Fold these 2 entries.
Entry 1:
Amino acid sequence: MAIPVLLVSGFLGAGKTTLINHLLTQPHGRRLAAVVNDFGAINIDAELLSARADGVVALQNGCICCSLQGDLLRTLGLLLRQDPVPEGIIIETSGVSDPAEIVRSLMDPVIWREAALDAVLCLADARALADRPALLQDPLCQSQLRAADIIVLNKVDEVSAEELAALRPRLDAARPGCTILEAVQGAVPPELFFTGDPWRGSIPAAPSRFSTPRFETMSWTSDAPLSLPRFQAAVSRLAPRLVRAKGILQFAGREGQPMLFQMVGQRATFSPAPPPSPDAAPVRLVLIAENGRLRPEATTALLESCRA
């Protein structure tokens, strides 16, 4: 199974390093590595993170979306050859990076087999946006938002309720349909990332709550393969209500070829999955949404209609 990669972008001072520190220090039990890019010759972010991850690699004095792109790919190769191999990799871009180029590099089929892009986060500084509304018109800021699967509106404790209420529709207009998480000190729900293999335990009959109260999850399995066109149509209907989805799927006419399905934000991907264990159902799917949006009965009925 490919190692999941989380790409963290955002404008200068938005709180990227603080968010990564939060993820690295949570009690999830995963071995995480971090790749940190600072545009200057001294990489302060790497020093701040060095005690928090199994491996912190600093890429400095350049931008990983252009001059350091080859260094980034070589660094990923080194991390993949570590023993033990990290169970997740976080890449922090500099505040002047356009993540679109990095996303294109990570989507290369050769890289994807070993290190699959899990999600793209873009941090937005609530205080800075409230003070300087023109920031959302900055071409770099717009590029960062367009590449995001999830927008983290950080430092919401530094703005009033009225300012916050005005910011959300502006971000939604800049990146229509994107999930927006509000955060203080970069504290995002770790359950949304590096989900690993979530299908080894029992399957809940109803949505269960995360330790972070805002989100819930439900699982669905099928002993029969799915119709690919019907599943694609179902996902299109479910996508506006989901934060993310992940599953091991088999489709009619392609039995024996399990596929890993991942969806985060508005981006969905398929890639080959390893053979399932003998007692595993051919189709195993996990959905994550904000509380109250899963509608388990309707969602289950929709997924049941996808059976071949």
Entry 2:
Amino acid sequence: MGILDSFEKGLERVVNGAFAKTFKSGLQPLEVTAALRRELDTKAAVVSRDRILVPNDFVVRLAPGDFARMTNLGPALIDEFTQLVQRHAAAQHYSFAGGISIRLQNDGSLPEGVVQIESVNVKGEIAWTPVLDIDGKRYPITKARTVIGRGSDADITVDDTGTSRQHVEILWDGKRGQVSDLGSTNGSKLNGVPLTKAPLPPDSVIEIGRTRIAFRVLAQASAGAPGSKRGAPWAD
């Protein structure tokens, strides 16, 4: 599968279902992703034999109608853009000076369907943000231990009779993840393999009952780092 195919597959999670109605016309999210990818490739600078530096701070300028449609999707779309930029950089062996920051900007001078990208290198700390995608919803992992199951006492409750009340736990130490089955009735799988306890690498899929849980880690700019953006990742 090529890089562009991976981008398209990732964006399908964002624009399917009700979101698809938003993009019957005008700029498509995939076009923004392709523009971000081109920006990385164009600005890539070889700084040593084994390091190619690319921008990590992006402003995506959009026409008012396109801006409104994109921002209606909320933070999930920015998260997808961030993850797919991160994947493209990894595939091309690019390096970032700091965490990735992407902000949408409303630009009344642009015609609908046109996107312009402005990017810079911003040195700073990287905040590794783990998230879980479950049934179209995204859950940031904010604690060292997160329990998933059918019961109301679980940190994340899933509506699935094939799961136990406390089915699996996810541990996160700030850099690495681990997943464990909590003695569930029907068991769990990690990337298709029966699970008891195992390391949890990014882009893994956990299966409990009929529920699929995608684990991802986003490299974002730390809130306290120089040049990091605070508040919503878009601006009028």
